[in-house]
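To whoever is on call:

I kicked off a structure prediction for a single chain this morning and the downstream step that reads the tokens threw a length-mismatch warning. I double-checked the sequence; it's 210 residues and nothing unusual in it as far as I can see. Pasting both halves so you can look.
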Amino acid sequence: MAPMEAAVVDRRAGGMSGTEFRDFQHKRPDHERWELLGGVPMMMTPPTLSHYQIAANLQMLLNDALESHDPSMLAAQRPGVELASGDYKPEPDVGVIDADFGAGQRFVEKAYLLAEIISGTDDIPVPGTDRRWIDVKRDLYRAHEHCQAVLIVSQDRMEVELDLKTESGWAESVLKGGAAELSIPAFGFKCLVADLYNKTPLAPRRVRPA
């Protein structure tokens, strides 16, 4: 897991609002990744190579499934999602959104699946609380009315926490080991947990003999 670090902007009186944060984001370089935690903007540490690869694998697998199941949706990395809470503006690692979007569009109002690959900064406490940022994000994603599934993916072991929305509420499961099957019927998606870790140190690429 990446070191637990984050660069924090000085807190304003009363905290930064969601609108102020979006204005602030527009002025920052595209390579910087900022999230709003309880009114406090934080710049997240750069992800590890494993983090990038897991996110890329998940995006590819989801898009392969959606292409035949429902091409009106697509999986995107780091989509800007406008959630109901103005004090929190997380940026999920992967999200399933509507495929129809504008050329210069940055943010969407609807996301149907939201996924996080756990980083060191996810363990930082949200200002004013004793809760980890990853736990708060999970609650925010589940509270989003359009969200049907939430994935929390570990980097240092083959393990996925899966939340699926059902008629009676959210069903939670933990999938451990590469042979476990990850299935999300709402998106026609099915794979082995090991598929998410392809070409990472947990499932390294085969090297051609010299």
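Update from on-call: the warning came from a stale cache, not from the record. Cleared it. Sanity check on the structure: The longest helix spans residues 49-69.
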